[in-house]
């Protein structure tokens, strides 16, 4: 039996959740992301805002220029994660394998659970109905023979859409005369490269596959296969240990030239990374520091360490990396761990042999938190869970910056 894949994609997820919880927002141009006076981008927006040309990843200043009368709100990620867990409980019930792409998107392999195309379509409609009835949200669903076709199908009738693509021939016929950008993995730059070569439609790719391969190499091979309807990728459940890194970064509303303050921010970011790593049972064998200066030049530095997720170690190592960088005003700073491994594969750390070293690091961390409490009047140690929820960390750091 050929594979049957369902792709589920929520409609303007963050905005829809906010409109569900606050009916006064319905029917209005709602933009979730930074506020107009802040630095940042649009995370998502309602379909009413999209009519003004606003879209995800747009600079918030440009969004405000296009839609000055829109309603702008910070995202509440804690709320969205909770809703996402409810969504996936509904979706996963129909699948033998579920591949989470984001909080609001997943591929579901229903080949075995459905047993037939007709049953799979019933599953897809049940997912839409239950998402609406149980959570008062809408999703767009595609049913197809492959992952690429299923994603294309879910986008075909958005929002609140439903579409089927049963065979490779159906897929090819549907997209043949569309721009190359309709294909999975063909981003803006790749599309521009193909356009310059006179390859503008999927049909052009189908007619000139060798030229696409010469132009794009291995990526071209993949694009040529997808254009011909060929995609044998399996739905693979996401595992935390498959992640390449765990990090947290933050953009300041004004450039920061005080490097002592940057190290205070690194302390909070390191605590956030520790909590994220502990949640999924992972350690890192490397610490990474990312800095973007006021002139938009970005630098990333890293160093290998014995496996850890200790905030104290991440803070110390990232602070040392910061000392090695040019001292210029900073727009963004981030810290993280990479080369991840699970609990059962974690190598013994130096701290495991010398517990007093670990104890000393923890004392240093708590002493630093106490210094922040005295300086800013904020009880960090008692309120860390609240600080790392949603946008609270961002607001806390901005408060610190203004009261430095």
Key phrases:
12 strands; alpha+beta; 4 domains; 5-stranded mixed beta sheet; 4-stranded antiparallel beta sheet; MutS, DNA mismatch repair protein, domain I; DNA polymerase, domain 1
Blueprint (SSEs and pairs):
Elements: E1 5-10, H1 13-21, E2 30-33, E3 42-45, H2 47-50, H3 60-66, E4 71-73, H4 77-92, E5 97-102, E6 105-109, H5 111-114, H6 117-135, E7 139-144, H7 147-156, E8 162-165, H8 168-175, H9 188-196, H10 202-207, H11 209-216, H12 218-227, E9 245-256, H13 259-280, E10 282-293, E11 298-308, H14 311-323, E12 330-342, H15 350-353, H16 355-376, H17 380-387, H18 392-402
Parallel strand pairs: 2-4, 7-8
Antiparallel strand pairs: 1-6, 1-7, 2-3, 5-6, 9-12, 10-11, 10-12
Helix pairs in contact: 4-6, 11-12, 13-14
Number of domains: 4
Q: What overall form do the CA principal axes indicate?
A: globular
Rg over C-alpha atoms, rounded to the nearest angstrom: 24 Å
Oligomeric form: single chain
């Amino acid at each position: 039996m050929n594979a049957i894949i369902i792709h589920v994609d929520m409609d303007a997820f963050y905005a829809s959740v906010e409109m569900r919880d606050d009916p006064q927002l319905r029917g209005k141009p709602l933009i979730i992301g930074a506020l107009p006076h802040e630095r940042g981008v649009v995370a998502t927006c309602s379909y009413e805002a999209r009519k003004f040309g606003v879209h995800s990843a747009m600079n918030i200043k440009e969004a405000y220029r296009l839609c000055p009368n829109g309603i702008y709100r910070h995202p509440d990620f804690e709320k969205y994660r909770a809703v996402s867990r409810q969504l996936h409980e509904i979706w996963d019930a129909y699948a033998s394998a579920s591949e989470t792409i984001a909080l609001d998107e997943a591929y579901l392999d229903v080949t075995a659970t459905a047993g037939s195309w007709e049953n799979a379509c019933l599953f897809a409609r049940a997912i839409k109905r239950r998402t609406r009835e149980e959570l008062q949200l809408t999703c767009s669903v595609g049913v197809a023979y492959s992952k690429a076709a299923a994603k294309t199908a879910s986008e075909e009738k958005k929002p609140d859409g439903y579409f089927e693509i049963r065979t490779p021939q159906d897929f090819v016929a549907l997209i043949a005369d569309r721009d190359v950008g309709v294909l999975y993995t063909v981003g803006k730059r790749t599309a521009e490269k193909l356009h310059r070569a006179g390859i503008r439609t999927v049909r052009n790719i189908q007619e000139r596959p060798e030229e696409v391969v010469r132009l794009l190499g291995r990526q071209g091979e993949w694009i040529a296969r997808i254009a011909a309807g060929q995609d044998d990728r399996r739905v693979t459940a996401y595992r935390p240990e498959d992640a390449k890194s765990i990090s947290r970064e933050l953009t300041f509303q004004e450039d920061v030239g005080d490097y002592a303050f940057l190290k205070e921010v690194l302390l909070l970011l390191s605590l956030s990374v520790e909590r994220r790593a502990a949640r999924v049972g992972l350690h890192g064998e490397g610490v990474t520091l990312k800095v973007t200066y006021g002139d938009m030049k970005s630098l990333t530095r890293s160093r290998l360490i014995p496996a850890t997720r200790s905030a104290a170690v991440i803070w110390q190592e990232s602070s040392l990396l910061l000392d090695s960088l040019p001292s210029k005003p900073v727009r963004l700073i981030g810290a993280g761990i990479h080369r991840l491994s699970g609990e059962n594969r974690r190598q013994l750390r130096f701290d495991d042999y010398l517990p007093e070293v670990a104890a000393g690091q923890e004392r240093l961390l708590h002493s630093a938190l106490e210094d922040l409490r005295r300086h800013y009047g904020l009880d960090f140690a008692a309120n860390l869970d609240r600080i790392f929820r949603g946008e609270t960390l961002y607001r806390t750091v901005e408060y610190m910056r203004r009261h430095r």
